[in-house]
Amino acid sequence: MFILKTLPNLEPITIKETNNKAKKILPQTLEIEALPKLTTITNSYKLIKKFKFKTIEDIQKQIDNLDLNLIEFNVLCKRHGTHKFSSQDIRDDIIRFLCEKYKIKPNYKSPKNTIYIDIIKNNCLIGLEPKTDLCKRQYKVRTSNNSLNCCLSSCLLIIANYNPKLSLLDPFCSDGSIVIEAALKQGKNIYAYDPKSTNLFNAKLNSEVAQVKINFKLQESDQIITQLPFVSKHSNPRIIENQLHSFLKLAEKAKTITIITQKTDLLESLIKNYKLKISKKRKVLIGEQNYTILCLKKKIN
Fold first, then answer.
1. Closest CA to 39 of 7, 67, 85
2. In whole angstroms, what is the distance from residue 60 CA to residue 51 CA?
3. Domain ranges of the chain
4. What integer is the mean pLDDT of 112-140?
């Protein structure tokens, strides 16, 4: 059995990516029998034990009952919830315990065995063969200020029911993660643009590293998936409003529109003047940043 870790509140999206083979067992935590290749997960590991606990000693006792047959090892720990100990406390305690039990020393640089301790409130999952930082992509050599998490970009494609056979446009492409993830899914006729020249430069460079074909121009398309700008203390409200007007005019001609943004007030006030309406809304928290995902569709007269 394997554990898949997801972005907050986006467990159903990863479940959909697995063709409903995974099931949610805890927040941001799915269980699946075989580990497929996925683009929306943050971490994964092979599950060897799951249990409830109250103290660090409870975790130590459970690990003591496992026949790990360690040679060279390291311990990683992730913790979510309120506890009287830190992730580092757990890690140090378990390393010390395993060193004494197996009469070996840890190997922090190139261990043959890595034990993964996943703590979620009063639940503890013990795993092996962890794959971490899966949201990092080798193609992202340049990042923009409003860069999207690549797993989140992939989630947007699934939320949008992205069809690789239809044309796609991202008119605010930032450093290109949405269109690159789409191209990696065998997407054709992919277009990208950004009003900021530095963002466009970043996206072009990243697409070259990813070895995918992106048409960098503003082009009417069947599908629009993008991260919309919003009014902040660092932006000009009039410029943002004009950009949103231009976007909504373009969106009226698309078959499907999926957007992510940090603030929706201005967009929701402007959309009333267009033949569009919000059909779905989903809020997500990535790190300390709140996002809203909106799906738009055409009004029926």
1. 7
2. 12
3. 2-131, 150-298
4. 93
Q: What is the CA radius of gyration of the chain?
A: 22
Query: In the CATH hierarchy, which top-level class contains the domain 150-298?
Result: alpha beta
Tell me which residue of 5, 13, 67, 8 sits closest to 258, measured CA to CA. Answer: 13
Q: Around 1, how many Cα atoms within 13 Å sit in the side-chain half-sphere?
A: 14
- Confidence band (pLDDT; 50, 70, 90) for 219? very high
In sequence order, which residues have a C-beta less than 8 Å from that of residue 151 and are 6 or more positions away?
A: 7, 39, 40, 41, 42, 134, 135
> What is d(CA 80, CA 58) in angstroms, rounded to the nearest whole number?
17
3-state secondary structure of 281: strand
Residue 255 reports pLDDT greater than 70: yes
Find tokens 């660092």 and name the residue.
234
How many Cβ atoms from other residues are within 10 Å of residue 281's Cβ? 11
Question: Which contiguous run of DSSP H or E holds residue 56?
Answer: helix 56-64
Tokens of 200: 């466009």
pLDDT given for residue 68 in this prediction: 81
Give 260's strand partners: 227, 293
**Cα-Cα end-to-end distance for the chain:** 51
Q: What is the pLDDT of residue 202?
A: 97
**Contact partners, residue 70, CB within 8 Å, separation at least 6:** 98, 102, 104, 113
CA distances (Å), origin 64, targets 49, 60, 126, 151, 154: 12, 6, 12, 35, 39
Q: Which of 150, 140, 157, 145 is nearest to 204 (CA)?
A: 140
Q: What is the DSSP code (8-state) at residue 215?
A: B
Amino acid, res. 70? L
Say how far apart CA 184 and CA 154 lie, in whole Å: 10
CATH topology of domain 2-131: VC0802-like (3.30.2130)
